[in-house]
């Protein structure tokens, strides 16, 4: 049985690079295609992309569900979907085996948001004069006020900021650029950081966030947050919790889902529902208190 799948993986990776997909996306897509190929090999199934069936893919996803969480299996499903879409585009198969398939159902597990007390403690842990306190305060406030992703935060440059307009140009998934807004307290924090930044030995760099030895990467910013969270007594603080918190606070304040989708850079309304799930019941109870259901009865 000729292996026609494995030789396609490097070509798929080159195609993704040509389409300017992010390194993270390329890794995810190619990893899922590789895992599927390995599954087919171990199960003694066809390695001809034109002969792969829906049953092959369903069995692979079932195998992933046995080993990993539903979220991971769903991610592998979506990545494999892109692989077979490319296979068809390249003429390696007439039709994708995943046509009319549905992804695994994900249980709705709301991500815990950061409450007001946690946020105040975190900001207190960042407070102080000097470069690092002002940098870290600006990072926390910008995460909270804009809801941007970790990768978008790390990629910011000086030219991306327009603090007089309370705006920043961020580059999201698929290299899609969008403007995000932030509040006046974040403007103040950014202004204080930028004044300290002028004294940094690497102030000539274009990257916004600087560390002792160079610009802060994704992992560097995550480390900053973990260190400050530890000082504030907050456990398991991942940068994405700010994104969930931003979505919750926006909706709780009466913001529309359409505007939230635009500000957050989501292409699907399903993402609004997913992120808005955090503390949904809390928002419903708060709305109930504002509405007189009983009226004059």
Report how far apart the termini are: 77 Å
Order of helices and strands: HHHHHHHEEEHHHHHH
Tally of helical segments: 13
Q: Would you identify the CATH H-level superfamily of the largest domain?
A: Intergrase catalytic core
Number of domains: 2
The residue fraction in helices comes out at: 55-70%
Radius of gyration: 23 Å
Structure explained in plain terms:
The longest helix is centred in the first third of the chain and has 20 residues, at 23-42. The relative contact order is 0.09. This protein is mostly helical. The model has no long low-confidence stretch (mean pLDDT 91). The chain has helices spanning 8-18, 23-42, 54-67, 70-89, 116-126, 131-146, 150-154, 184-197, 218-232, 240-252, 257-264, 269-276, 280-290, and strands at 161-162, 167-171, 177-181.
Task: Throw out a few tags for this protein.
hpI Integrase, Chain A; 297 residues; mainly alpha; globular; single chain; 3-stranded antiparallel sheet; 13 helices
Give the gist of this structure.
The protein is mainly alpha-helical. Helices cover 56% and strands 4% of the residues. It has 13 helices and three strands, in the order αααααααβββαααααα.
List the helices and strands and how they pair.
Blueprint: H1 8-18, H2 23-42, H3 54-67, H4 70-89, H5 116-126, H6 131-146, H7 150-154, E1 161-162, E2 167-171, E3 177-181, H8 184-197, H9 218-232, H10 240-252, H11 257-264, H12 269-276, H13 280-290
Helix pairs in contact: 1-2, 2-4, 3-4, 5-9, 6-8, 6-10
């Amino acid at each position: 049985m000729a292996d026609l799948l494995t030789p396609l993986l490097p070509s798929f990776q080159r195609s993704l690079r040509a389409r300017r997909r992010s390194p993270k996306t390329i890794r995810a897509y190619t990893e899922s295609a590789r895992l599927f190929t390995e599954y087919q090999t171990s199960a003694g199934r066809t390695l001809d992309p034109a002969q792969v069936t829906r049953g092959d893919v369903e069995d692979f996803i079932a195998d992933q569900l046995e080993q990993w969480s539903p979220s991971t299996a769903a991610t592998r499903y979506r990545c494999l979907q892109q692989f077979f879409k490319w296979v068809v585009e390249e003429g390696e198969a007439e039709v994708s085996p995943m046509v009319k398939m549905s992804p695994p159902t994900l249980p709705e597990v709301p991500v815990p948001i950061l409450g007001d007390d946690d946020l105040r403690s975190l900001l207190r842990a960042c407070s102080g004069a000097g470069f690092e306190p002002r940098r870290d305060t600006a990072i926390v406030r910008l995460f909270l006020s804009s809801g941007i992703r970790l990768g978008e935060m790390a990629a910011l440059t000086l030219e991306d900021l327009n603090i007089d307009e309370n705006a920043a140009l961020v580059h999201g998934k698929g290299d899609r650029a969008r403007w995000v807004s932030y509040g006046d307290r974040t403007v103040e924090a950014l202004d204080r950081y930028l004044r300290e930044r002028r004294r940094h030995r690497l102030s000539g760099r274009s990257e916004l966030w600087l560390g002792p030895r160079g610009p802060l990467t994704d992992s560097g910013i995550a480390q900053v947050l973990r260190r400050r969270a530890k000082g504030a007594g907050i456990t398991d603080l991942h940068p994405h919790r700010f994104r969930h918190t931003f979505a919750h606070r926006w909706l709780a304040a009466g913001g529309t889902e359409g505007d939230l989708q635009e500000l957050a850079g989501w292409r699907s309304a399903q993402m609004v529902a997913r992120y808005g799930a955090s503390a949904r019941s809390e928002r419903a109870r708060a709305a109930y208190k504002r509405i007189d259901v009983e009226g004059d009865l």
